[in-house]
Design a protein that fits this description.
The complex is a heterodimer of chains A (541) and B (308). Chain A is an alpha/beta fold. Chain A has 2 domains: 253 residues, 3-Layer(aba) Sandwich (Rossmann fold); 260 residues, P-loop containing nucleotide triphosphate hydrolases (Rossmann fold). Helix content of chain A is 36%, strand content 26%. Chain A is built from 19 helices and 21 strands. In chain A, the strands form 4 sheets. Chain A has a 6-stranded mixed sheet, sandwiched between helices. A 6-stranded mixed sheet of chain A has the order 17-18-19-14-20-21, with helices on both faces. In chain A, strand 1 and strand 2 form a beta hairpin. In chain A, helix 3 crosses helix 4 and helix 15 packs parallel to helix 16. Chain A is globular and about 70 Å long. By secondary structure, chain B is an all-alpha fold. Chain B contains 11 helices and no strands. Chain B has a domain of 182 residues: MetI-like fold, CATH 1.10.3720.10. In chain B, helix 5 packs across helix 7. Classes of the chains: A alpha/beta (541), B mainly alpha (308). Chains A and B meet through helix 2 and helix 3 of A and helix 8 and helix 9 of B.
Chain lengths: 541, 308
């Protein structure tokens, strides 16, 4: 594939001039991309991969500075190029697909207008020609019912469809280079697999070169010819995908490759007492409309689900967004009103009032997905952790509380000396540990873990998973583990429920679900998560 | 959308009722009455007058009587302008106030939006700071301070424009009151436009527009402007209320025969029916205009659907 490079990045430096001083985001990155080649830029958050990608078309905000380096498209220097030059290249010769399908389209224009604009701009097409071409593009990228979708506004389309529109827009002028910045990160796994298959197919058809930015090594393995591993603004390793995967040179690459959550969970003994039991749990949200807000229908978020949790068990609940898995978790903890019977430690709790629930709350704790939003920014982490103790053990002295906080922080491997700091001073992974410490300080029996690892980088995820498993072994905890990420669930859970549209699709031992799935939907999820190639051409929904 | 409009109109009835009730009783709480003068009237004459206007009846009776009148579109007679009904006076003053208000609104939107956009695109330059400083002053200085200053400079010192009066609507007489009325609106809309423009220019879909290869000019005109103006559109409702209250003061200062001046004089004279009539009329106008603004917003933003 070693033809002449179409895109060359040489010793690129990118700084951000902020109020607090200059921050270097990219420090001397070099790579080149040949015609028809796919190069993946891989790295975790903060590695500078997206900044590098946005630099190519000069799309960074004005605070970005380029003290050194060069970016050449077809021999043409892009850094400091005149606006006119950039405009003839952007969207025409080099096109880009972004990470955020929900916000990257103009909400006030129809998708046809937005895609057609590229064609009228670069190809001088009139309305009719452009419309015909847009329709052709929509069919090409697999937008169902393309003709009717032309006049749709972005909010009327799903995330996957919006990303298809973005891809159609990028392909409109048949560019030489397509830059895809985490194009599937915001999408569900089955949709992710479809979009990747689409990009691969289109790349071959058009003979484009593709620069692919991702944190997901599974995707790299299947789609890239060559890979650049980035860390803290530098390229630490570069080479053909096969070589890098088979024989990683840099320790960081090895760490990344190793960062798949591993192991599995043994089920608790058969005679372990039942801790929590739910029968026919139903959460229906009323849809109101018309005069005086009559109830005109229901969204069945959770539709008659039953489950049993024994002490020491981890029940994984998997499903894509909108499947009702988080709603189910909240209903079981009575954080949300529901129908159906729920028993905890043998006593019915479905009829209890919030006040009656209070003494039980310390036994059932929650860790949420968002480690940035779920810790109060105005409290030190010590105060956050101690707050539960103040509620549940009002007689505890300040010194005893302090000791409990220190012990909880040590348990999650955070230096207790940092307990007077505020949440924003910690990284995502550390915050999630703090959230776990906040739950653990009350010595609960049962933890609801709602996507606790989803906002974290893979290498950090692995550590959080290991921590949760160690705590479970030490204290005999029972987990309800909710996640869309099957790799994490495989490592954590001994029993799994697969949910779709508020219903249980499949329920069984983890081993059976992962190795001998009985339902098509489970198979699709597994294929999309673990083996992207299997789903080439697969169409779900 | 039509049924939504009807629903909103139906909801405005209780709002209006509350406005009427509160202003009716507040008005009566104020000391004095419409027929108190320098010279005390003989008791029997006063009793006759009060009886003629039903003011001798219990307050609740007067209240329900007034409500009944409003339901039939009757705002009653003015107590001070003999031989005129309140409706006569409102219809005489309204065209004048309306003209002032429309011009002020137009100036407010045109200049406010232009200044705001310009400042946003020149963000953090000296020009931006200058314009936003001016806008801050425009918001901070009340119009009863601004109006006399304008009169002093352009009317007295420079003698370019008349200092007051209406002169049957001569253009020169309108300039200063319209400017005095529009300035705070220009200032407020400019600040708001700047803020929302800056926010929109940093959003993902603007990055997409740039990635398409559009010139910065087209990015702003085709993609940023409409989004940035949505908050301005929703401000037009409160802006109407602001202009109406502003006109009450401005008409008084410049001696313009609009509703605002009747209102102030009626309040001073305890002309109960005229005050009430003006309040109800303006209350209904503001409610109506807010509804119109919401409907326009729905047309501009496809994400809003009034299908209830």
């Amino acid at each position: 594939m070693a033809e002449q490079p179409i895109l060359e990045v040489e010793n690129l430096h990118v700084d951000f001039a902020l109020h607090t001083g200059t921050v270097s985001a990219v420090k001397g990155v070099s790579f080149s991309l040949s015609k028809g080649e796919t190069l993946a830029l891989v790295g975790e958050s903060g590695s500078g991969k997206s900044v590098t990608a946005l630099s190519i078309l000069q799309l960074l905000p004005p605070v970005a500075r380029y003290p050194q380096g060069s970016i050449r498209y077809d021999g043409q220097e892009m850094l400091g190029a005149r606006p006119g030059t950039l405009q003839t290249i952007r969207g025409n010769r080099v096109a880009m697909v972004f990470q955020e399908p929900m916000t990257s389209l103009n909400p006030l224009q129809t998708v046809e207008q937005q895609v057609a604009e590229v064609l009228t701009e670069h190809r001088g097409m009139d309305r009719k020609e452009a419309r015909a071409r847009v329709l052709e593009l929509f069919r090409l990228v697999g937008i169902p019912d393309a003709e009717r979708r032309l006049s749709a506004y972005p909010h009327e389309l799903s995330g996957g469809q919006r990303q298809r529109v973005m891809i159609a827009m990028a392909l409109a002028c048949e560019p030489d280079v397509l830059i895809a910045d985490e194009p599937t990160t915001a999408l569900d796994v089955t949709i992710q697999a479809q979009i990747m298959a689409l990009l691969k197919d289109l790349k071959q058809r058009f003979g484009m070169a593709m620069l692919f930015i991702t944190h997901d090594l599974g995707i790299v393995h299947h789609f890239a010819d060559r890979v650049c591993v980035m860390r803290l603004g530098e390229v630490v390793e570069q080479g053909s995908t096969r070589e890098v995967f088979a024989n990683p040179q840099h320790p960081y690459t090895r760490e990344l490759l190793d960062a798949e959550p591993h192991g599995h969970k043994e089920p608790p003994p058969e005679d372990a007492p039942v801790l929590l039991e739910a029968r026919d749990v139903k959460v229906w949200f009323p849809i109101r409309g018309g005069w005086f807000s009559r109830v005109t229908g229901h969204v069945k978020a959770v539709d008659r689900i039953s489950l049993t949790l024994r002490e020491g068990q981890t029940l994984g609940i998997v499903g894509e967004s909108g499947s009702g898995k988080s709603t189910l978790g909240k209903a079981i903890l009575k954080l949300l009103d529901s129908d159906g019977r729920i028993r905890f430690e043998g006593a019915a709790i479905d009829g209890l009032s919030p006040l009656q629930m209070k003494p039980l709350r310390r036994k059932m704790q929650v860790v949420f997905q968002d480690p940035f939003g779920s810790l109060s920014p105005r409290m030190t982490i010590g105060e956050v952790i101690a707050e539960g103790l103040k509620v549940h053990e009002p007689l505890m002295s300040a010194r005893q509380r302090e000791a409990a906080v220190i012990q909880a922080l040590e348990e999650v491997a955070i230096d207790p000396g940092l307990r007077n700091r505020y949440p924003h001073e910690f990284s995502g992974g550390q915050r999630q540990r703090i959230a776990i410490a906040r739950a653990m300080v009350l010595k609960p029996k049962f933890l609801l873990l709602d996507e606790p690892t989803s906002a974290l980088d893979r290498s950090v995820q692995v550590k959080v998973v290991d921590l949760l498993k160690a705590l479970q072994r030490k204290y005999g905890l029972t987990y309800l583990f909710i996640s869309h990420d099957l790799a994490v669930v495989r490592a954590m859970a001994d029993e799994v429920i697969v949910m779709q549209h508020g219903r249980v699709v499949e329920h069984g031992r983890a081993e059976q679900i992962f190795h001998h799935p009985r339902q098509d939907y489970t198979r699709q999820l597994l294929a999309a998560s673990f083996d992207l190639e299997l789903t080439d051409g697969a169409r779900v929904a | 959308m039509l049924s939504y409009a009807f629903k909103r109109l139906a909801q405005s009835i209780p709002t209006l009722f509350i406005v009427i009730t509160i202003s009716f009783f507040l008005m009566r709480l104020a000391p004095g009455g419409p027929f108190d003068g320098e010279r005390k009237l003989p008791p029997e004459i006063e009793a006759n007058i009060l009886a003629a206007y039903n003011l001798d009846k219990p307050l609740y009776w007067q209240f329900f009587d007034y409500l009944g009148g409003i339901l039939q579109g009757d705002f009653g007679p003015s107590f001070k302008y003999k031989d005129f009904t309140v409706s006569d006076l409102i219809w005489a003053g309204f065209p004048v106030s309306l003209e002032l208000g429309m011009w002020a609104m137009l100036l407010g939107v045109v200049f406010g939006v232009s200044i705001g956009c310009y400042a946003a695109l020149k963000q953090n330059t000296r020009l931006d700071y200058l314009m936003m400083g001016g806008a801050m002053a425009g918001i901070a200085i009340p119009n009863f301070v601004m109006a006399p200053i304008l009169t002093l400079v352009f009317g007295v010192y420079l003698s370019w424009l008349p200092v007051g009066g209406w002169d049957s609507g001569a253009v020169a007489n309108k300039v200063l009151p319209v400017i005095a009325l529009a300035l705070p609106q220009i200032a407020y809309i400019a600040r708001m436009t700047r803020g929302s423009m800056i926010e929109v220019m940093g959003s993902h879909f603007i990055r997409t527009a740039r990635a398409k290869g559009l010139s910065e000019r087209k990015v702003v005109r085709r993609h940023a402007l409409k989004s940035a103006l949505l908050p301005v559109v929703s401000y037009l409702g409160p802006a109407t209320a602001g202009i109406i209250t502003g006109s009450v003061v401005i008409e008084q200062i410049f001696g313009i025969p609009g509703i605002g001046r009747y209102f102030v004089q009626a309040a001073l004279n305890r002309d109960y029916t005229l005050v009430m009539g003006t309040v109800v009329f303006y209350g209904a106008l503001i409610i109506l205009f807010n509804l119109v603004v919401d409907l326009i917003y729905g047309l501009l933003d496809p994400q809003i659907r009034y299908d209830d």
